[in-house]
Design goal:
The complex is a heterotrimer of chains A (286), B (277) and C (287). Chain A is mainly alpha-helical. Chain A has twelve helices and two strands, in the order ααααβαααβααααα. Chain A has helices spanning 2-27, 36-51, 56-80, 83-103, 122-146, 148-165, 170-196, 206-219, 224-240, 242-245, 248-262, 266-276, and strands spanning 113-114, 198-199. With 287 residues, chain C is mainly alpha-helical. Chain C has a domain at 20-217. The longest helix of chain C has 30 residues, at 2-31. The chains are: A mainly alpha (286), B alpha/beta (277), C mainly alpha (287).
């Protein structure tokens, strides 16, 4: 039972993390190659507060706030640069975070932080809480998608200059996307820290940023159900197929490449095209 | 006191005032000390040979480009430094020459996006509003006004240029502007389509909307506009009623003097600007 | 004198960056794709170079094979990966490239082992003494020299020869270029070939400098090369060179003075971000 509980917890955290990136990159079209840094901020915040005596639950809001705050700052860069340049900038942010944390003994330096205090919820309780947060994130994503915020995000992703001419304060919306997305990433980070009971600078590097991006892309950028499924699958892939464990990155890389090559809109796109041939199923609403 | 008198009273009654606007790009002077006014209810045509600076002027009014000199006033308030979306919220609306609708949503949804400008004023208010029923209704109304309501559920991706131009117009109208800017609305349309769209524009003006438009199609402009402003080489060379303006020798030279093709006008403009630099 | 030595170290590192970044900037200038997988050609070149040199005893042969293998692999990457994706939004090619890169790094690890490979008898290790207390390995001097020569040749090719001008034409106006009889396919192939050859070439140099080739040696260079081409301005060869050398020097000084706050990569990227915020189009962008 413990093994399954741990697996589900891992999935819930990964889904939360992936959905948070989906808000920024999928909904609002702002590509971020450094998203793991925000999970890292949340993780380190929760871990260090925990070691300072805070209870797990009380660390959550602070972790979110800190991650969201830094997220807005990084979001400001999206107001200056776009597309490729934004991709590189966010990648740089990721390296900046790792490179900074690694050099500070305050953050545990190279070795990171281990032996976190007990969260006091028990294995099952922790898993349920993680699942709850995950469900709330999904619900929020779907709500945003259906609201005017989602419609505006979608417009910005497609053509932000036209959106300006329609009276949209594009910068503010971009920052909103970053704020919401990164704070949820921070939340997932807190859970991550207590789940693994260890975090280090290498837990939140470029490869992790690419991994979460690949979950979003694989599921289908912008598609909430697609991202949920993709994240859940990719998170536990190495666990299910022990033999893959060592080849995990090879599989990730290969899948990413193949998916982009043959179905750039991810699994959601594949599904849509599959159902298009079936007249009984209505397509997604405009 | 009739509305007519009030309109022509003190300067600050003009809806839009362009005062001494100049725009320089590096060594090139695109606009040089252009001033004119647009009064409420006007249907003002901005004309001139290719490269005269008309689109630059419209962009300066809209905020896409910041003037290097001069100022633009809307209802007496300066627009200088304001970002585009703020100008839109103050009452400007632009229908662009290159129509770029949002491709993944229907024509009606495109217009609804503009109609939702109250709800989308801030991310928070956008987050708190889900329903688009009202906006779609408004969209239908505007689409009907421009005559393409029957296509409202279709995708913009498959539409001919004439329909796209009307979509763009409907989008601009849905913002309920005080002043509508149209950048070459008739470009690319054949004679019939151009006449039809021009008539629609005139009707909309009759219904009370102030319009400033750039056009090359002189035939239609002379037909529907009551006032013209003529630009050449970045400077204003004429202003007034269509007939008066078109009989002005300077205007005639600008249009006919340097040869047939617009290209040579452009070359003349470039040469002139190089001499200024 | 410390400053001089740091500058020299920076220039050496910068030369390597330049060789890798050049290939990247040629591709970006042509296709607007961030060709992340480019760095795997760098690693490939290193492996091939070491293998061939160890097997044959000739460094020159090693260089040649590395260059050719990298070059052709690069063209294959273009044909198989990028060409079909040209009509998609840019992030698609970027992510595909990242996937390809990660997969290839892993492939190297699986095939050649994680520990890496070395030269049996590392050549060009002699120390050369210059004035001012400077001392270099012959390899270090040669890498700077060869980079300089290559840049000069490339710049000349771009502006003077038919091929070079054709390349530029395909960037600014592909349809026009085609109507002039320039084969887009050929130009793009040549572009990828040249860029990939440079990467492979750089890989052998790094193998010489460190006497080690290992699977992850491409990673960091790759990411920094991306930063460099962005700094240097899209597709600009002189800009890329300047940015590469500048970055090498900044890193060199930065690690000494900021090393306790940020690690090497963080310094490089902090510089990048700072520059982009001030000049969003890059340091040397043609404007």
């Amino acid at each position: 039972m413990n093994y399954e509980i741990s697996l589900i917890t891992t999935m819930a955290i990964a889904v939360m993390f992936a959905l948070s990136l989906n808000l920024i990159t999928g909904f609002c079209g702002q590509i971020s190659l450094g998203h793991a840094a925000f999970q890292g901020v949340g993780a380190y915040a929760a871990a260090m507060l925990g070691q300072a005596g805070w209870s797990f639950l009380t660390t959550l809001p602070l972790a979110m706030l800190l991650a969201g705050f830094l997220g807005v700052i990084v979001g400001l860069t999206s107001l200056r640069v776009r597309a490729d340049f934004l991709a590189i900038t966010t990648m740089g942010v990721g390296f900046l975070f790792v490179g900074f944390v690694r050099q500070q003994d305050f953050f545990g330096g190279e070795l990171g932080i281990s032996s976190l205090p007990d969260h006091g919820l028990g294995r099952l309780g922790f898993m349920l809480l993680a699942l709850l947060m995950c469900v709330l994130t999904a619900a929020l994503s779907i709500y945003i998608q259906r609201s005017w915020m989602g419609r505006v995000f979608s417009g910005i992703a497609e053509d932000e200059d036209t959106m300006r001419v329609l009276g949209i304060d594009v910068p503010r919306y971009k920052l909103a996307a970053f704020a919401i997305g990164t704070s949820i990433a921070g939340l997932s980070g807190s859970f991550y820290a207590y789940h693994l009971n260890f975090i280090g600078p290498d837990s939140f590097g470029f490869v992790e940023s690419i991994t979460v991006l690949s979950m979003v892309v694989f599921g289908g950028i912008g598609s909430v159900p697609g991202v949920i499924i993709a994240a859940a699958l990719l998170a536990v892939l190495p666990a299910w197929f022990q033999v893959i464990g060592d080849y995990k990155l090879l599989v990730y890389g290969g899948l990413l490449f193949l998916m982009m090559r043959f179905s750039p809109d991810g699994m959601a796109g594949l599904t849509k095209r599959f159902f298009k041939s079936n007249p009984m199923v209505r397509g997604k609403q405009a | 006191m009739t509305t007519h008198d009030v309109k022509h009273d003190a300067d600050h009654q003009a809806l839009l005032r362009v005062v001494g606007v100049g725009v320089r790009f590096g060594g090139l002077t695109a606009l040089d000390d252009v001033s004119f006014e647009v009064h409420e209810g006007d249907l003002l045509g901005l004309i001139g040979p290719n490269g005269a600076g008309k689109t630059t002027l419209m962009r300066a009014i809209m905020g896409v480009v910041q003037p290097t000199h001069g100022n633009v006033y809307l209802e007496g308030e300066s627009l200088n430094g304001l970002p585009i979306h703020k100008r839109v919220r103050r009452g400007l609306s632009l229908s662009q020459q290159l129509v770029k609708p949002l491709r993944d949503i229907s024509i009606a949804a495109n217009v609804a996006m503009a109609a939702a400008h109250h709800k989308t004023a801030s991310p928070l208010s956008a987050l708190l509003n889900v329903s688009d029923a009202k906006e779609l209704a408004l969209a239908h109304a505007e689409l009907a006004r421009v005559g393409i309501d029957s296509l409202s559920l279709q995708s913009p991706g498959i539409q001919p240029l004439g329909v796209l131009k009307r979509l763009e117009l409907a989008r601009a109208l849905a913002l309920k502007p005080k002043l509508l800017l149209l950048d070459e609305p008739l470009a690319g349309l054949n004679t019939q389509e151009a006449k039809a769209l021009a008539t629609t524009i005139a009707d909309i003006n009759q219904q009370g909307l102030t319009i400033l438009l750039i056009e090359h199609n002189l035939h239609e402009i002379l037909r529907i506009c009551r006032r013209l402003v003529v630009l050449d080489n970045g400077k204003k060379i004429g202003e007034g009623e269509p007939h008066t303006v078109m009989s002005d020798p300077d205007v005639r030279t600008a249009y006919l003097g340097s040869g047939a093709a617009g290209q040579s006008d452009h070359a003349k403009h470039m040469k002139g600007a190089a001499e200024h630099a | 004198m410390l400053a001089l030595e740091l500058t020299a170290q920076g220039l050496i590192q910068g030369s390597i960056y330049a060789l890798v970044a050049l290939g990247l900037t040629l591709v970006y200038g042509l296709l607007r794709i961030l060709h992340v997988a480019h760095a795997s050609l760098f690693t490939l070149g290193g492996y091939v170079g070491v293998l061939v040199c160890n097997a044959s005893g000739s460094l020159l042969l090693g260089f040649l094979c590395a260059a050719l293998v990298a070059g052709f692999s690069g063209v294959m990457m273009f044909r198989l990966a990028y060409q079909p994706l040209l009509s998609q939004p840019p992030y698609v090619a970027l992510i595909a490239s990242i996937g390809l890169f990660i997969a290839s790094e892993e492939a190297f690890r699986i095939i050649f082992g994680a520990q890496g490979m070395s030269f049996m008898a590392p050549p060009l290790q002699q120390q050369i003494v210059l004035g001012g207390g400077l001392q270099f390995k012959l390899a270090e001097l040669l890498v700077m020299l060869s980079t300089a020569i290559i840049i000069a040749v490339l710049a000349w090719l771009q502006s003077r020869t038919r091929v070079g001008i054709a390349c530029q034409a395909t960037v600014s106006d592909p349809q026009m270029a085609e109507s002039f009889g320039i084969s887009l396919r050929h130009v793009r192939d040549i572009n990828f070939f040249v860029g990939s050859v440079l990467a492979g070439f750089a890989g052998v140099w790094v193998a010489l400098l460190n006497n080690l080739v290992e699977p992850t040696m491409g990673s960091v260079t790759s990411y920094k090369a991306l930063a460099i081409i962005v700094l240097g301005g899209l597709g600009s060869v002189p800009g890329t060179l300047a940015a590469a050398l500048l970055l090498g020097v900044i890193e060199s000084f930065g690690t000494i003075y900021l090393g306790n706050v940020l690690d090497r990569n963080a310094i490089a990227f902090a510089f990048l971000i700072a520059v982009l915020m001030v000049r969003p189009q890059g340091l040397f962008a043609k404007r």
